[in-house]
Amino acid sequence: MDDVVGLLIVLGLVVLAVPVLLIVALVSVSGLKRRVAALEAQVAALRSARPATAPAQGVASPPRPAPASTVREPADDPTLAELPRAQATPPAAREAAPPPASTGAVPPPVPPLPEPPRATFENVRREPTPPQQPRPPAESDFATLALRTVKRWFTVGNVPVKIGVLVLFAGVAALLKYAADQGWLTVPPELRLAGIAAAALGALVFAWRKRESNRTFALSLQGGAIGVLMLVVFAAFKIFALMPAGAAFALSIVLVAGAGMLAVLQDAKALAVFALLAGFLAPIWLSTGSGNHVALFSYYAVLNAAIVGIAWHKSWRVLNLLGFAFTFGIGTAWGAFDYVPEKYASTQPFLALFFVFYLLIPLLFARRQPASRRDFIDGCLVFGMPLVAFSLQAALMQGSTFDESRMPLAFCALGLGVLYAALAWSLRRRENFDVLAQAYALLAVGFATLAVPLALSARATASVFALEGAALAWLGLRQQRLLPQISGAGLQLAAAVALLLVVDAWRFDEVALANPTFMGALLIALAGFASAWAYRAGGKPGFALAYYLWGLAWWCGAALREFDQFLPPAWRADADALLMFVALTGWLAAEAHRRRPATALAWTTLAALALAFPLALWQTGAHQHPFAGLLGAWSWLAYAVFGIRSLQCLRDSEHRLAGAAQFVWWLVWPLAASLLLGWLPDRIDGMGQGWQLALMALPWLATVAMALFRWRWISAPLGERFDGWRNVLLGVLFAVLSLWWLGALFSAGDASPLPWLPVLNPMELAQLGVLVLALCWLLPQGHPGIPRPSLIVLLAAVAFVWVTSVVLHAVHHWGGVPWDGRLLSTSLAQTSLTVVWSVLGVLGWVIGSRRGQRMLWLAGAVLMAVVLAKLVLVDRQHLGNLLGIGSFIAYGLLCTVVGYLAPAPPRQQDSEESVA
C-alpha cells in the first residue's frame, strides 16, 4: 500500500510539472519571436536607407563611403562600367578632382549613384590561395622498379631491333633443334653449321662497322650474332658431336671474352651483361657430367678475373651482382649435391680466391664513383659476400678434420674481423670513403663478436644472418634504398628461425651465459637494437619501435632460457633472479636513453620499475616475504641500486616519463616493506592479528607522512620537476590505505600479548593515523573534485564509521561477544551504539549551538534522529532486558540536556560566516 501511495505521489508531481514546463517553453518562444521581429525591422530600415539625393545648389555634399567589403574598381564592377565615365568615377577620385570653373549656369543635379550590389559569396573578392607545394615523389618498391625497367627496355631505344633479335635468336635455336630431330636438312651438318657461323660473323662485322652511326642497332645485332655463334658451338658439341668438349669450351670462352671486349670498347653495359650470362651458363650446357669441379671453378675464376678487370675501368654494378650471384649460387648448388670432405683441399683455394675477387670489386666500384657520390656503396656485395662466403666456409669444414673442433672456424671469423678492421682503418683516412669505412668497421666488429660463440659451438649461421641483416638495414636506410632494408629485415628473421631450428641442441649447453645459444640470441637482440637505432636516426620511428621490440623480446627470451636451464630447481619458482634481470634491463635502457633519448627506452625503464609489483607478490608466495631466500635481499639491493641510477638517467634526459618512473618507485617500496612487516607477527608466538594489520599499514603511513611533511625526501632525484606528481602520489597512497582501512573494519584486531584498549591498540591507532593524515592533506587545500562542505561531511562520515567500529570492537573484546555476524544482534552491541551515537549527537548539537556552526548543529540533530529511529525499529525488541531499557533512558537524558543547553539552531548568518 505504501508503494502504491508513493507511486501516486510521484505521478502527481510529474503531472503538475508538465504544464509548468510547457508554460515556460511558450514564454521563451514568444520572447524569441519578439526579438526576431525587432531584428528584421532593423534590417529593413538599413536596406531602405539611401544617401541624400540633391544637395544644395553650389554645395557639394560628400557621398557616404561604401563599406570596405563592397568597394570595387570601375573596371571590376559591371554596374559601374555601364555608367558614363563621370558617374563611374569612384567617390575618392571625385573628391580629389578640382571643381570645374564657374560658367554662370547652374549645373544639373547629379543623380545619386545606385546602391552598390550587396556582398555575396560570388562577388566578394577572395584572397588568392597560395599554390600547393608539389608532393615529393613516393619511393618505389622493388616490384615497381622492375616493371619500370622492363617497360623502359620495350619502349626506349630501337625497340624493333631488340625484339627482332630476341625472336630471331629463339627461332634459330628452335629451327636447328627441329631440323636435327626431323632430318629435314640433307646438307651435311658441318656445312650447315659453317654457313650459320659465317652469317653470324658477317652480321657481327656489319654491326661493328655501324657502331658509330647506329649504336643501338649495332649493339643489338652484335649480341644476337654472338649468341648465334654460341648456339653453333653448342650444336656442334651436343647435337652433332663434331668437336670435343675441350674445343667447344675453348671456343665458348673466346666468344665470351670477345663479347666482353666489345662491351668495354663500346661502353655497352647490356652487351657485357649478355656476355657474362653466356659465360656462366656455358659450363652448364656444355657439361659432360664428369664432375670436374677444379675445371669448373678455374673457368669461373677466369670469368671473375674479367669482372674485376671491367670493374677497374667501369662502374657497372649489375655486372658485379650477376657475377656474385652466379659464382656463389652455382658454387652453393655444387656443394649441396656433389661436395664431400675429401674435396676440401681442392675447393678451399677457390673459395678464398672468389672472396678476394668480391672483396676488391666494391672497392673498385666506390673508386669509380664521383667524389660526391662515394657514400653510395654496393651494400649487397659489401655485406652479402662475407655472409655467403663465411657460411660456405662453415659448410666446407663439416665432415672434414676441422669438424671435430670449432676453433678453426672461430679463427676464420677472427681473421675476417682483423681484415675488415684493417680496411676500415685504411679507408678512414681517405676522403669521401666514410660510408665504406663504417661498413667495414661494422663487419669487423660483427666477425670479432662472432668468434666468441664459434669457439664454443658451430651455430654460426644465425649469428651471421643477424649481424649482416642489421648492417644491410643500416646501409639501405643510409642510401634510401628499399631492397637492402627488406633484405636486412629478412636476414634477421632468418637468423631467428635458424636459431630456433636447433632448439633440441639447447639442452647440451653446459656453461651459463658463455654458451652458443645465449650468444646467438644475444647477437640477434643486438642486431635488432642496432637496426632500431639506425631507423630512429633516419626519422622512421615506427620501424625503429618494431626493431626495438624485436630485440627486447630476444634479450628477455635469452635470459629466461638461461634461468630455466641453469638455475637450481629450488630457485626456478622464485622471482629473485628475474627481479635482478628486470632491474638490469631498466638500467641499461635508462643509460641508453640518457645518451640518446627515446620514448621506447623510457617506457622500458618504467616497465622494469613497475614489474617489481608482481615480482614482490611472487616472492612472497614463494618464500613468505620478498627479502627471504638466498637471493631475496640481494635482488632488492640490485633493484635499489639500478633503480636510483635509472631515475638519475631519466632526470638528466628530462623526459616526461621521468615523473611516472619515480612515482612507480615510491609505490614499490611501501609494498615490499609492507609484505616484510606483515610477515613478522607470524614468526613471533602470541602476536595478534591487529599487530599484523598495523605493521602492514606502517610503510604506507610513513610514505604519506614524508609526502606531506618532508616532500624534499620524496622528490629526489627529480626535485621540483616531481612536484606535479605530489597530489597524484598522495591520492594513490590514500587509495591503498582506504582499502586497508575498510578491510580492517571487518577484522577483530587482536592486540595480544597486550590488553586491548579502545583506540589505544595497534590496528585502531593505524586507522586513526589514516584519518589524521587525510585531514592534514585535504582540509588545508581541499580537493578539486569535491566542494569543501561536502568534503567535511565525507570526512565526518568516515570518522563516524570508525567510531562505530571502535564501539563494536569494544563489545567484542570487553563483552566477550564473538566476532561474527551475530554481533550486531546482541543487546550489548545495540545499547552501546545507541549510547555512543547519542553522545556524539549531543556533542554536535551543543558545540554547534555554542560556536554558531549551523552545519555541525544540523549534523548532531540528524544523528539524534537516526538514534531515535534506531530505538523505535531496533532497540525496542530489547526492552525486556536492562541494556535495552538503559539505551532508552540514556537517549532521553541526553535529549533533555540538549534541550537545556542548545534548544534552537544558530542563526543562518553566523553559520555562513563560520563556513566562510
TrEMBL record:
<keyword id="KW-1133">Transmembrane helix</keyword>
<feature type="transmembrane region" description="Helical">
    <location>
        <begin position="831"/>
        <end position="848"/>
    </location>
</feature>
<feature type="transmembrane region" description="Helical">
    <location>
        <begin position="791"/>
        <end position="811"/>
    </location>
</feature>
<dbReference type="InterPro" id="IPR019286">
    <property type="entry name" value="DUF2339_TM"/>
</dbReference>
<dbReference type="Pfam" id="PF10101">
    <property type="entry name" value="DUF2339"/>
</dbReference>
<feature type="transmembrane region" description="Helical">
    <location>
        <begin position="220"/>
        <end position="241"/>
    </location>
</feature>
<dbReference type="InterPro" id="IPR014600">
    <property type="entry name" value="UCP035905_mem"/>
</dbReference>
<feature type="transmembrane region" description="Helical">
    <location>
        <begin position="759"/>
        <end position="779"/>
    </location>
</feature>
<feature type="transmembrane region" description="Helical">
    <location>
        <begin position="542"/>
        <end position="560"/>
    </location>
</feature>
<feature type="transmembrane region" description="Helical">
    <location>
        <begin position="600"/>
        <end position="618"/>
    </location>
</feature>
<feature type="transmembrane region" description="Helical">
    <location>
        <begin position="270"/>
        <end position="288"/>
    </location>
</feature>
<feature type="transmembrane region" description="Helical">
    <location>
        <begin position="159"/>
        <end position="179"/>
    </location>
</feature>
<feature type="transmembrane region" description="Helical">
    <location>
        <begin position="879"/>
        <end position="902"/>
    </location>
</feature>
<feature type="transmembrane region" description="Helical">
    <location>
        <begin position="439"/>
        <end position="456"/>
    </location>
</feature>
<feature type="transmembrane region" description="Helical">
    <location>
        <begin position="693"/>
        <end position="713"/>
    </location>
</feature>
<feature type="transmembrane region" description="Helical">
    <location>
        <begin position="319"/>
        <end position="337"/>
    </location>
</feature>
<feature type="transmembrane region" description="Helical">
    <location>
        <begin position="247"/>
        <end position="265"/>
    </location>
</feature>
<feature type="transmembrane region" description="Helical">
    <location>
        <begin position="294"/>
        <end position="312"/>
    </location>
</feature>
<feature type="region of interest" description="Disordered">
    <location>
        <begin position="49"/>
        <end position="139"/>
    </location>
</feature>
<feature type="transmembrane region" description="Helical">
    <location>
        <begin position="663"/>
        <end position="681"/>
    </location>
</feature>
<feature type="transmembrane region" description="Helical">
    <location>
        <begin position="725"/>
        <end position="747"/>
    </location>
</feature>
<feature type="transmembrane region" description="Helical">
    <location>
        <begin position="518"/>
        <end position="535"/>
    </location>
</feature>
<feature type="transmembrane region" description="Helical">
    <location>
        <begin position="191"/>
        <end position="208"/>
    </location>
</feature>
<feature type="compositionally biased region" description="Low complexity">
    <location>
        <begin position="84"/>
        <end position="96"/>
    </location>
</feature>
<feature type="transmembrane region" description="Helical">
    <location>
        <begin position="624"/>
        <end position="642"/>
    </location>
</feature>
<feature type="transmembrane region" description="Helical">
    <location>
        <begin position="489"/>
        <end position="506"/>
    </location>
</feature>
<feature type="transmembrane region" description="Helical">
    <location>
        <begin position="349"/>
        <end position="365"/>
    </location>
</feature>
<feature type="compositionally biased region" description="Pro residues">
    <location>
        <begin position="97"/>
        <end position="117"/>
    </location>
</feature>
<feature type="transmembrane region" description="Helical">
    <location>
        <begin position="377"/>
        <end position="396"/>
    </location>
</feature>
<feature type="transmembrane region" description="Helical">
    <location>
        <begin position="855"/>
        <end position="873"/>
    </location>
</feature>
<keyword id="KW-0812">Transmembrane</keyword>
<feature type="transmembrane region" description="Helical">
    <location>
        <begin position="6"/>
        <end position="29"/>
    </location>
</feature>
<protein>
    <submittedName>
        <fullName>DUF2339 domain-containing protein</fullName>
    </submittedName>
</protein>
<feature type="transmembrane region" description="Helical">
    <location>
        <begin position="408"/>
        <end position="427"/>
    </location>
</feature>
<keyword id="KW-0472">Membrane</keyword>
